[in-house]
Specification:
289 residues; mainly alpha; Fusion Protein Consisting Of Minor Coat Protein, Glycine Rich Linker, Tola, And A His Tag, Chain: A, Domain 2; three-stranded antiparallel sheet; 3 strands; 7% strand
């Protein structure tokens, strides 16, 4: 709490020319009043009362002349206009007002800083939310890619397993057919042959087979050479063809495929002169023969 001396120290200092200004103002008013009074009395005419009287004296006397009119009063010089007093200087702002303004300015600065900080924090939160959203999107894309890769891998494995099962089944069927073809074989236990008997086909049997298969060959290309394609053919005892395999290529893929297709189309081989059909034999085919 401020004391009386403290408040007096906060008051503005007294004006040193106050009493002098008041004195000059009073003097100017007095001079003005005197001038007005004199002006009013000068303009007013004096009222002269005339009367006649008869004087009786022992000796006759001549009357004196009337008195001369009084001269008009000299005009009074107008009083000088009062000098306007200088405006008193504005009192200095008290220290308390300065401190209050400074406090308000500091408060305004703090509010601006708090507003800037709030905007910065809001921007940082928005950036973090966007970053999290992008991370979630990347994770979802990575999961989808992994699922697609896993599906492709499973499909590939399933395809490989199906191909392996198909090959195994083909081999099993081939073994069955081979077993059926060798069931009536008469070779020894250590024999490595594939014929039913230990005798080969007759000399004319190859020509009979070629004559049976060659009409089914469809080949229209003109060749300068005469390459041979060797095909291994497996049959049942009745001559039904159960398998064929290209043993030696002719170097011309079209000719090799034409021969293989002709064998498939033939379906069965003729019997030899002894009435039998070899279970396996290799046949050579040339395009110009």
């Amino acid at each position: 709490m401020q004391t009386a001396p403290d408040r007096l120290e906060l008051l503005p200092p007294p004006d040193p020319g106050l009493w002098r200004s008041l004195g000059l103002a009073l003097l100017a008013h007095a001079v003005l009043l005197v001038g007005l009074s004199l002006g009013m009395s000068w303009k007013r005419e004096a009222v002269i009362t005339t009367a006649a009287a008869e004087l009786w004296s022992a000796l006759p006397q001549e009357a004196a002349p009337p008195p001369e009119a009084a001269p008009p009063p000299e005009p009074v010089a107008p009083a000088p206009e009062p000098v306007p007093a200088k405006p008193a200087p504005e009192p200095e702002q008290p220290v308390a007002d300065i401190a209050l303004k400074k406090q308000k300015l500091d408060e305004k600065k703090r509010k601006l800083e708090a507003l800037k900080q709030d905007k910065l924090e809001a921007k940082q939160r928005a950036d973090k939310a966007l970053e999290k959203e992008l991370d979630k999107k990347k994770i979802a894309q990575e999961k989808a890619r992994k699922l697609a890769d896993e599906k492709k891998r499973q499909d590939l494995e399933a395809k490989k397993e199906a191909q392996a099962a198909k090959a195994l089944e083909a081999q099993r069927q081939d073994n069955i057919k081979r077993a059926l073809g060798l069931a009536a074989a008469t070779g020894s236990a250590t024999s490595s042959g594939t014929a039913l008997k230990s005798s080969g086909p007759s000399a004319s049997y190859g020509g009979k087979i070629v004559a049976r298969i060659k009409p089914n060959i469809v080949f229209t290309e003109e060749l300068n050479s005469n390459p041979a394609a060797e095909i291994e053919v497996r049959t049942l005892p009745d001559g039904t063809i159960i398998g064929r395999k290209l043993v030696k290529t002719s170097g011309i893929k079209a000719w090799d495929e034409a021969v293989l297709k002709a064998i498939d189309k033939t379906e069965s081989l003729p019997r030899d002169i002894d009435g039998r059909v070899p279970s396996s034999l290799t046949i050579s085919f040339k395009p110009k023969d």
